[in-house]
Amino acid sequence: MPSELSPIDKAKFVAAKQATQYVEDGMKVGLGSGSTAAWLVKCLGEMVEKEGLKIQGIPTSTRTADLAREVGIDVISLDEAKWLDIAIDGADEYDGNLNLIKGGGGSLLQEKIVATASDQMVVIADASKSVETLGSFPLPIEVVPFGWQTTKTLVEETLIGMDVLGRDVSLRMNGDAPFYTDEGNHILDLHLNRIGNARQLSLVINQIPGIVENGLFIDICDVVVIGHGDGRVEIRDINQGTVEEDRIDFVENDNLFADLND
Ligand code: 5RP
Prior knowledge:
- There is one protein chain.
- Helix 1 packs across helix 2 and helix 2 (35-51) packs parallel to helix 3.
- 28% of the residues lie in helices and 25% in strands.
- It has 2 domains: 2-130 and 219-257, Rossmann fold (3-Layer(aba) Sandwich), CATH 3.40.50; 139-215, Alpha-Beta Plaits (2-Layer Sandwich), CATH 3.30.70.260.
- It contains 7 helices and 17 strands.
């Protein structure tokens, strides 16, 4: 493995590389967002260029769309695709039932729409994303800018009745200004520490006017591919109830790595 890659980057790479095995000619592929998904997009781009792989990619963020085009993937919109064969994306946390927290990069809305419109969702992650109970990672929720402070108060009041260990809510910032999602909304990060009933919380949060969507992915993910820094990968399939192991070996001078850490 290239010596300049950190163990965490190696883990992300091998997870992404392993997940390309789910992608076949002719597929419509949802392309996730974040650093792990960026590895996937690069790997798929290389397969398009060197192996003649023919896919259509449906990106979940403008950043991913830019990268996908850059590496030669045919990019189409979700409305053009209508339904996808597979979505492959990263995650901020996954539990034993493959329920997730996503949205650390602020793309949870498009990611959830794309994953839900796919026959299969495969998550790629390093082992640090594994948790027994969701909630250590702050739960992102997407909120419309109109009256967001009132919505925040409603969220705080709602959390009082929920099975969570923390109740701090913060507006995500981009420097000195509020962060805007690709859909022109803000993100509230909910510092809950532990989410006792993620399914219930997801349903309740989405009832609050002004909330567009939350970052809990419940019963959406089918497979998690977990990468390790030494090249090992573990594949957990919730539908088949299987856990398999594999290993990814790759050559040190692979040009995939040239500019991946930007
Ligand atoms: C973006 C996401 C990402 O998938 C999540 O934040 C993981 O990112 P990374 O692969 O960089 O750790 O949900 O909204």
